Amino acid sequence: MNSWSEKYSTNVELIDTQHKKLFEILDQCYELLLNPICLDKYDKILHILDELKEYTSYHFKCEEEYQLSIGYTKFLSHKVMHDEFIKRLNDVNLSEIDNDQDKYLNSLLDFVQKWIVEHILYVDKEIPNNTKKS
């Protein structure tokens, strides 16, 4: 499991703070997966999925507004990646969750973690820090 570390820093405080929150949501998912007491995880998975969708949409909107405010030239390709990620989250088949909850949770965690880590390291780190220090 990848938790937040400075290697994910974009040096844009707003973006880094929001990325930390995404890692916290991933941690919730990981904790649920490892919870041996909770046998029926369906409602909790749906809650985490809803939180992930909601927060990711909010984060992408903020990140895209920042990119536009600094005239970031790769904005459109970046937005396409965001839109594809949201579509993937929205295309979740709820019956798959119920068939094998741990397997589904594991695959969701793998997908989201890999996407977020790679997106931060190889795409978000290219966003320049044009914020003024006071």
From TrEMBL:
<protein>
    <submittedName>
        <fullName>Hemerythrin family protein</fullName>
    </submittedName>
</protein>
<dbReference type="InterPro" id="IPR035938">
    <property type="entry name" value="Hemerythrin-like_sf"/>
</dbReference>
<feature type="domain" description="Hemerythrin-like">
    <location>
        <begin position="11"/>
        <end position="126"/>
    </location>
</feature>
<comment type="similarity">
    <text>Belongs to the hemerythrin family.</text>
</comment>
<keyword id="KW-0479">Metal-binding</keyword>
<dbReference type="InterPro" id="IPR012312">
    <property type="entry name" value="Hemerythrin-like"/>
</dbReference>
<dbReference type="InterPro" id="IPR012827">
    <property type="entry name" value="Hemerythrin_metal-bd"/>
</dbReference>
<dbReference type="Pfam" id="PF01814">
    <property type="entry name" value="Hemerythrin"/>
</dbReference>
<keyword id="KW-0408">Iron</keyword>
<dbReference type="InterPro" id="IPR050669">
    <property type="entry name" value="Hemerythrin"/>
</dbReference>
